[in-house]
Amino acid sequence: DAGVTQSPTHLIKTRGQHVTLRCSPISGHKSVSWYQQVLGQGPQFIFQYYEKEERGRGNFPDRFSARQFPNYSSELNVNALLLGDSALYLCASSDNRGTGELFFGEGSRLTVL
Amino acid sequence: AQSVTQPDIHITVSEGASLELRCNYSYGATPYLFWYVQSPGQGLQLLLKYFSGDTLVQGIKGFEAEFKRSQSSFNLRKPSVHWSDAAEYFCAAYTGTASKLTFGTGTRLQVTL
Would you write out chain A's pLDDT as a tens digit for each of its 113 residues? Predict the structure, then answer.
């Protein structure tokens, strides 16, 4: 069975641009979460979606948005990119049993110049 | 505030030696606890998890962790380290009210031959 897949794996943007990152969860998982991992730090929670509804949001500015589609895949959008948005963006899926157990993808490495 | 602390930023051990990585949590109630491993440029792989019950939990790749309520700790151990264990290790905690995993800052493990 395929795990969590993310695209693109690497991308380079310039300040002020916007970016869209995509994620497909494990088959059967209805919950998708997004995390930002800055170099040298632990992942920080951005969003959680379940059944296309936002269930949680971390301490990130409104430039960050996300959505979940009927097939449970998800997009993370970041507008007006800043240098500080350079990070590894991780998507994770879960079966929403309420245990917090997450299965992570390989991530999308975003570099903002 | 709810938090996860990994006191050791960097640990070096010789191949074949034992390993213990420390993790402490600060929560009002006992959260669900996890250890993840991350190889360079990769996503996070779940090593083991603690929900309740037996305080010594076994994981993949020969790792185990012991939950100690009195010390608010969930330390990761391995009896004999292999060179392939060199990676970044993250402890994480989950409570249902927050709908998110809270990660520690990570411990980088270096293995010398």
Answer: 679 999 999 999 999 999 999 999 999 999 999 999 998 899 999 999 998 999 889 999 999 999 999 999 999 999 999 999 999 999 999 986 777 889 999 999 999 99
End-to-end CA, chain A:
37
Over the stretch A96-107, which tens digit does the pLDDT of each residue have? Answer: 677 788 999 999
Side-chain-facing half-sphere of A85: CA atoms under 13 Å: 26
Contact residues, B window 26-65, toward A, CB-based 8 Å cutoff: 31-32, 34, 36, 41-46, 49, 51
CA A4, distance to chain mean position in Å, is: 11
What is the three-state SS of A21-74? EEEECCCCCCEEEEEEECCCCCCEEEEEEECCEEEEECCCCCCEEEEECCCCCE
The 3-class secondary structure across B41-84, one letter per residue, is CCCCEEEEEECCCCCEEECHHHCEEEEEHHHCEEEEEECCCCHH
B98 close contact with A: CB closer than 8 A: yes
Closest among A77, A93, A96 to A85, alpha carbons compared: A77
User: Closest to B44 (Cβ–Cβ): which among A98, A99, A104?
Assistant: A104
